[in-house]
Amino acid sequence: MWRSCPICEASCGLVLEVDRSDKKVLSIRGDDEDPRSRGYICPKAFAVRGVYEDPDRIRRPLRRRADGWDEIGWDEALEYAGTRLRGIRERCGQHAVGTYIGNPTGHDLGAMLYTTPFIQVLDTQRLFTGATVDQFPKNLTCRLMYGDAWLFPIPDIDRTDFFLVLGANPLVSNGSLMSAPNMRARIKQLRCRGTKVVVLDPRRSETAAAADEHLFIKPGADAYLLFAMLNVFFAENLIDLGRLRDFTEGVEKVSELARLFTPEIVAGPTGIPAGDTRRLAREFAAAERAICYGRFGTCTQEFGSLASWLVDVVDILTGNFDRAGGMMFPRPATGQAEPVTADPGPVPYGRFRSRVRGFPEFDGQLPAAVMAEEIEEAGDDDRLRALITVAGNPVLTTPNGKRLARALEKLDFMVSVDIYLNETTCHADVILPTTVHLEHENFDFLFQSTSVRNMVRYSPQVFDPLPDAKHHWEVLLELTARLVGTTAEKFDEMVVAGAIATFIGRPGTPCEHVDPDDVRRKLVDVRGPERMLDLLLRAGPYGDRFEDDGEGLSLAKLRGKLHALDLGPLEPRLPEILRTSDRRIQLAPDLLVGDVDRLLGTLEERGRDNRLVLIGRRQLRNMNSWLHNLPELMSGGDRCTLVVNPEDARRSGIANGGRARVRSRTGEVAVAVEVSDEMMPGVVSLPHGFGHGASGTRLSVANEHAGVSYNDMADENVLDALSGNAVLNGIPVEVFPA
Ligand SMILES: Nc1nc2c(c(=O)[nH]1)N[C@H]1C(S)=C(S)[C@@H](COP(=O)(O)OP(=O)(O)OC[C@H]3O[C@@H](n4cnc5c(=O)[nH]c(N)nc54)[C@H](O)[C@@H]3O)O[C@H]1N2
Ligand SMILES: Nc1nc2c(c(=O)[nH]1)N[C@H]1C(S)=C(S)[C@@H](COP(=O)(O)OP(=O)(O)OC[C@H]3O[C@@H](n4cnc5c(=O)[nH]c(N)nc54)[C@H](O)[C@@H]3O)O[C@H]1N2
Ligand code: SF4
Ligand SMILES: [Mo]
């Protein structure tokens, strides 16, 4: 069987040898014929078997009793959850019920498509997602600059001559907002072709080690550095917008601001000598085709929105945007990035605020970092009383997780849609499990929009689920229907009718003259995500538009393809797909410009600041917090170690192989030490996602390799001031011998 790997964004092609009668996976290997991954896989590919077989995985709904958990039937579980949630909404208002949606949602078509109606029906001001511990600054800046929070520019990496990477480690993460399997081979190939690869990172990461050049940068200082590069571009007449000049607003404003940040002024806060910054800027501007790419590290910091913004500004002002070898916009087959005629209206920002610290919403979301206080400290008439976690483990993945764990115990009611009894779900009153990867069809919905080449990928179901199992979308649909007071079948019909009304017969779209009744007859005849997918594909840019014998895509046609379907290189798409009100790129949005004073205000202080700070470190065999229960990924020694520069180790009195205590404002942990000059002096590093072993969890393997939780040390009070993204890097800590 052929499938794509659903664990990370790269979505590599897999070949599975299976025994279907015995429901056993005999082997997993990389698919040599997959045009995207060409045989490449990483060790996490084995997780699709590991999770499927894991005896600790939850297979039937669990209800909490005084002395443990009872397996219960689906009717009872859904009725119980629905009744309690409805009761709290009726008594205390809709905002008393909140939800936290986690990362695996983005890897499952059904979860993606049915989360939207679920959120709409909840209609709560307590919507939290993993986005606010990840890429929310990028969402904000894309909304401000291009008019859509999900219109991300993606590196056209294979055609570039200069690849500048800030705050990303694609050799380990396998790429984020840059879906491209086997980054090691790609980078090697690029360098053979003469492309220069430069990495700015406080740690000599795996990617930095494979690059032409690595510069240490102090955590949180990217916005200064990027402004200084812009300063050089303006001072030395290196600005060239090319065809973007005709539809870009705000160059003058950026020039004014950049004047304030010379390479000399930012040398203190960045730790990068002015000469290096100047040279970097000149080399970047001189390259025929260049990419400035920033990701997790440039988002999860106090100036996350400014840094994310300036990354794009550097690309735009050097003519490296929306053209081959620069940053480009993919064209997903399901139509997310097609031109739209409707005015997007004002930026959805600050329409309401969190109750306790008054943080403004963006796009309907509040920062995950305020969750605990909304439970514990909001007034009795207004507190968050019930929470639904969906495929998320915020106790280990959001700042001050220990506090959150305590707060969850104070909820009136908690539901978790999840497959493990882990550090978060152990606080729930009822756990609703879903089928896992091999038990359902899939389509890489999100990663078409982040792929470095246009592509579509369908993955078939491998095994029938247990007779009484439910898919993720079914669980969400059942819960949603119960909140509305209707049946799942009826609600699903409403969802499809809504989608048909959106995509069919709308003036100015490819299916303007298609008959909605005809569409309904022709769609695949099943409930759920496959029917929606068929609609989106057929109405999408490569679709058959519901013509009989049409050439274009449909689900039926896609089901016949064993491997990913390559739809060609990325192509220029601007200005057609801009969604800003005036259909122009907003290079200097007021909200971002307004935050530059804060950046200026911290220049001196940051230059002087020599406190020790903590940053994270992804590891090839982790996926955030949730693959630690698979023995095949947990062999070898303790991975949850603190890496310390030799100078800092000496100063702190700790040694390689010894143990250290790490203390921040919020927490303290004890870990094993590795001393290495891969760390910038003044910076220590620890992986996240560990910290298992909590009582009440059912993770027999993970609890044996418990480690400590990074997020016990991340401070829930320090956020990116604009987007509310958590600051997960650059946390001031003290380190001393254990
Ligand atoms: N300090 C620090 N914190 C971080 C990060 C960091 O680098 N450093 N990274 C951040 C990032 S980028 C992210 S995306 C977040 C992730 O944060 P979360 O999404 O909160 O956490 P995960 O560890 O991905 O947990 C996934 C959960 O989904 C469940 N699950 C897995 N598969 C399925 C499924 O098919 N169905 C259902 N229903 N449940 C499933 C797992 O059991 C687990 O409970 O963490 C963030 N937190
Ligand atoms: N193996 C594995 N792969 C994963 C995941 C996983 O947990 N494990 N998680 C997946 C998810 S959900 C995501 S979002 C992606 C993220 O993927 P990436 O965006 O590639 O993120 P990271 O691998 O965390 O790399 C961030 C880098 O930023 C550096 N850094 C820290 N602070 C700063 C700073 O202030 N400035 C600069 N310039 N650099 C800084 C860190 O040292 C690190 O090398 O990875 C995905 N892939
Ligand atoms: S890089 Fe690894 S985890 Fe990511 S899709 Fe490929 S095989 Fe799966
Ligand atoms: Mo993420």
Coarse shape: globular
- The average pLDDT score comes to 97
Distance between the termini: 51 Å
Oligomer: single chain
The helix/strand class is: alpha/beta
What features would you describe in this structure?
The protein is of the alpha/beta class and 738 residues long. 30% of the residues lie in helices and 17% in strands. The chain contains 25 helices and 31 strands. The strands form 10 sheets. It has a 7-stranded mixed β-sheet, with helices on one face. A 4-stranded parallel β-sheet has the order 11-10-9-13, with helices on both faces. A 4-stranded mixed β-sheet has the order 26-28-27-31. Strand 1 and strand 2 form a beta hairpin. Helix 2 (74-92) crosses helix 17 (472-484), helix 4 crosses helix 13 and helix 18 runs parallel beside helix 20 (529-539). The longest helix is centred in the N-terminal third of the chain and has 19 residues, at 74-92. The protein is globular and about 65 Å long. The model has no long low-confidence stretch (mean pLDDT 97). Residues 5, 7-8, 10-12, 41-42, 44-45, 174, 181 line the site of iron/sulfur cluster.
What are the SSEs and their pairings?
Blueprint (H helix, E strand, L loop, with lengths): L1 E3 L8 E7 L4 E7 L16 H7 L8 E4 L2 E4 L2 H19 L4 E5 L7 H14 L4 E3 L6 H11 L7 E2 L6 E5 L3 H4 L9 H10 L3 E5 L5 H4 L3 E3 L6 H14 L12 E2 L1 H8 L4 H8 L3 H13 L3 E5 L1 H4 L4 H14 L9 E2 L20 E5 L6 E3 L8 H6 L9 E5 L3 H4 L3 H8 L4 E5 L12 E3 L9 E2 L9 E4 L1 E2 L12 H13 L3 H16 L12 H7 L6 H11 L15 H5 L5 E5 L15 E2 L3 H4 L2 H6 L1 H6 L4 E4 L24 E4 L1 H7 L6 E5 L4 E8 L7 E4 L44 E2 L1 E4 L1
Parallel strand pairs: 6-7, 6-17, 9-10, 9-13, 10-11, 12-24, 17-18, 18-19, 25-29, 26-28
Antiparallel strand pairs: 1-2, 2-3, 4-5, 4-19, 8-14, 15-16, 20-22, 21-23, 25-30, 27-28, 27-31
